[in-house]
Amino acid sequence: MIVYALICAAGHRFEAWFRNSAAFDSQRSDGALSCPLCGASDVQKAPMAPHVVRGGRAAAVRAPAAAESPADRRQPGAPADGPSLEAFAELVTQLRRHVEEHCVDVGSRFAEEARRMHYGETAHRGIYGEASAGDASALRDEGIAIEAIPWFIRRDD
């Protein structure tokens, strides 16, 4: 199974699981994908963020498990009767705070730094940054585990 970060034409970001890359392509071309927030069927893969590594072991940074239920992992097109957008925004805010406090922002050098850690050229550490869809795909093809993190623009008002 593959989890992809997706984005609709209206800019809503969400995740969905697929059997493989071909399943995503097939569902997208058949119009079977839709945004769970607005129902838009123009859905594309979004740039993926890092898989955070700590102490030599890979571990995805996620919101607390107790805050997640099976309804939180709805497939595109499923009814939107799960957690409110406000609750989701709070979880994303907590996640962002955790990542910023415990990881290094490598910015646009994310793909390069992830490769350096994967191939043992530098010590494993928690990083986050930006990667194009092409870079994210290439990293996965090389066997480098990365994860997308939903990221809201921080507002200090």
The rounded distance between the terminal residues' Cα atoms is 40 Å
Number of helices: 4
Helix proportion:
25-40%
Mean pLDDT: 76
In N-to-C order, the SSE pattern is EEHEEEHEHEH
For the secondary structure, the number of strands is 7
Let me know the largest β-sheet.
Answer: 3 strands, antiparallel
Overall outline: flat
Beta-strand percentage range: 15-25%
Name the strands of the widest sheet in spatial order.
2-1-3
Low-confidence stretches: 50-80
Radius of gyration: 16 Å
Tell me about this structure.
The structure is a single chain. The chain is α+β, with helices and mostly antiparallel strands. It has a domain at 48-141. Helices cover 29% and strands 17% of the residues. The chain contains 4 helices and 7 strands, in the order E-E-H-E-E-E-H-E-H-E-H. It has a 3-stranded antiparallel β-sheet. Strands 4-5 form a two-stranded antiparallel sheet. It has a two-stranded parallel ribbon with strand order 6-7. Helix 3 links the parallel strand 6 and strand 7 (127-129). The protein is flat, with a radius of gyration of 16 Å.
Could you write a compact summary of the structure shown?
By secondary structure, this protein is α+β, with helices and mostly antiparallel strands. It has helices at residues 21-29, 85-102, 110-118, 133-141, and strands at residues 2-8, 13-18, 43-45, 53-54, 57-58, 104-107, 127-129.
Brief descriptors of the model:
3-stranded antiparallel beta sheet; single chain; 157 residues; 4 helices; alpha+beta; flat; 17% strand
